[in-house]
Structure formats: structure tokens, C-alpha cells
Design a protein that fits this description.
With 425 residues, the protein is α+β, with helices and mostly antiparallel strands. Helix content is 48%, strand content 14%. Strands 1-2-3 form a three-stranded antiparallel beta sheet. Strands 6-7-8 form a three-stranded antiparallel beta sheet. Strand 4 and strand 5 form a beta hairpin. Helix 4 runs antiparallel to helix 5 and helix 4 crosses helix 7. The termini are far apart.
Length: 425
Amino acid sequence: MNISYSLARPKASKSSIRIKISINGTYFFVYPGISIQKDLWCEKSKFIKKNNTNQECQAVKAKLLAAESLVSNHILEFKYSQTKISFLEFKTRVIQALNPRKSKFILEEGDLTRSSYILEFYNGMILNMESGKKNNSGIKYRPSTIKSYHSSLKVFREFQESCETRFTFLEFKQRELDAFGHFLSVNKNYYVSQQKKVLTHLKSVLNYAARLNLANNRDVKELQFRFKNFQPETIYLTESEIQEMASISSFKNKTAELARDLFLIGCSSGMRISDLVKLNDHSIIGGHIHLTQTKTTGKAVIPINGKLNTILTKYDGKIPHITGNTAWRYIKELAKELPSLNVPYTEKKFIGNSIVDVTSMKYHKLSTHTARRSFVTNELLNGNNPHTIMSIAGFKDLKSYYRYVRSSSKEAAEKCLEFWGNGIE
């Protein structure tokens, strides 16, 4: 075990100091965010020059000694703790403790191959993403993608804790994967789309581990990522229900009214709530909203109809700032006041391994996608072309688009008769 110091840029007049930590025949550098003038540094002793009473020297010295003490504590934990930790986890803890924001830390593949535990490898892979590592297409991971991986990692950690074990790549077989799928559908009550996301992320982790020879490539390829193939019911608001929402005149406060208005904008435009709360960031040119979608970065041009124009005019084109969570909380409270939503609603759900009927109040079925789903469904029922709706709402393909269509069989039959122009009297 050895801790030493050096200048990151020895020829510069001022340089940051890096710490070299050697342990078990390997080493790595840490950049704790401490800088010093070159003339105050002794290259021979690899430390601050002795007998220097300069105030800057004393401050830097104190920081370095504090950093050394912290590193020593982590080394002792790594070597003697009853709970065994891997080299990768040790390195991660040291880096994050010394300078979590500014440390120039990118895990090398050699670091990752020292971890046989899935959770630690998973965390290291995300650290690589945050440090700017590119994907197979040579593109850096978007913040939204990294956030999604963090959420999936959290769920996998919960699953591991519920099993009271630490999964290794060699131990994680089809039985463990099926148990994880069961955990997602039953314990977490995840929709199919949520299950797919978490399992897809885990598959990426296992594939990457296989490329680094941590996991058996053949075993990984043979894994079947199964999930409960049952899509829970979701609702949309009919035009009369949207009008009922628009007719609310009494509000708890101005924020509640703003949340309602944003929901109505979503019902008239198909915008996601992540875009609605940033409405002021989008350009309005020639009666259209020019939108760069937060989730996909895709472009969309939304025509401003009469309902949408009324709300924008109400705020003089400047929508006050509100977070998505705040807006959603008020929308759910307002939904309880609507007679059309304050009624029992029965749906089919997975309970254990069985599909059963579950009844709750209809307003509980509202989600952050309800406004977007309402726009898509109502426009389709009104005879608008699916490709036109896709373009306005920013859908990339028909598969994604049709997930949002929620018309009932009865509504479809009525539209069919309307198209035919007759029916049985």
C-alpha cells in the first residue's frame, strides 16, 4: 500500500495535484481538485517544499493531509472490513469521496474486469456513461438515458436485497432472471413497458460483461428475457370530459390553475408533460409551436388551434414555471372533482400469477401520459389522418403511435357506422 503525489502538468506555472494510490500490485490516480504554484512544489520529494510558511502552501498541505487520511480509511476498510468489497468498489468510493464532481475518472475495462459482482459492474458501467464514454455508435449517452439506467440499477439493487445475496455473473442464470421478472411484475407492479426497460438495461450490462469475459457469452445469449405479457388498461379523456376539466373555475391556488391549463394544452397538442413545463423555451412562429422534444430530441411543429390560443393568450404567451411533479400532483387533485371521473372503474391486473378484475375510482387511472393519449385518440376518432397526428405529436413510428390509441370497441363501432352512413334501425 502506498500513497504518493505528483503534479498533473509539471511544466505549467500552476498545476493540479494528483494522488497515486497503489494497492495489491495495481494503482490508479485521483484528482482531488487541489492546485499549487510550481515554484512551491518540490519535484524531488513529490510534496510541498519544506519550511515554507506561505499561506497558500499551508492551506494546500492541510487539504492533502486530509485527503490522505480519508484514503487511508478507505484502504483499511478495503483490506480488513468483514463485508468484502471489490477493487472496483474501493476505487469508486475513493474517487467519489475526494472529488465526486470534478474528478477526471473514467473506468477502464481493466477496472471493470476486476468485479465479478453484477451490481458493482452495473454501477461502474453507469459511471463510464457519466464520464463521457460513448456507446457502440460513437455517440455519448444522453442525460435522460443515464437517468433511466440509474433507475433500473436501483430496482436491481432492491431485488438483490430482497434475495439477501450478491449476484455474480456466473451465478445469474435463467432461474434468477425469471425471479427478477416476477419481482418487477408482482412486487413492483410494473407495466410491461417498464419491465421491458429494466430488463433491456440488464441485458446491456450482461452483454458488456460477456465482451469483457466476466460472463459466459454463450450463457448470456441463451437467457430468455421473459415478462408478464399483459398490458394494463389505461384511459383517455373524451372531449366531453376534457370540457368538464376546462369548466373548473374554483382552484386551490394559481399553481393548480396553471397545472390544469397545461393539461388542457397537452390534450390539444399531444405534448408530453416534460415539454409542457418548458413551454416558454419553445418558439412560436406563424401560429405554430416549434418544439424540440425533451425525451427524444426530435423536432415537431404544433399548430395553435382555438383552444390552445385561448390559454396562451390568457398568459400573454409567457407560461409561469412549474415542475412536472408539481403539475401532476395538482392535476390528480382536480380530477377527483370531475363527476365523470369520480366513478368506479374496473380493470384487469396481475395479482401473483393470475389475472383478476380490480375496481378503483376512474380518476386513479390518470397518468402523466393521459393528455397526450387523449389528443391522439380524439384526433383519430374525429377523422384526422394517423400520419398527421404522428407528425404533430412527434411519434417516430406507427408502433409507438398505436400504443396511445385508447378508443373502446363501442366507439370504434359507432365510427364505422358513421363512415358507412347507415345501420340497422
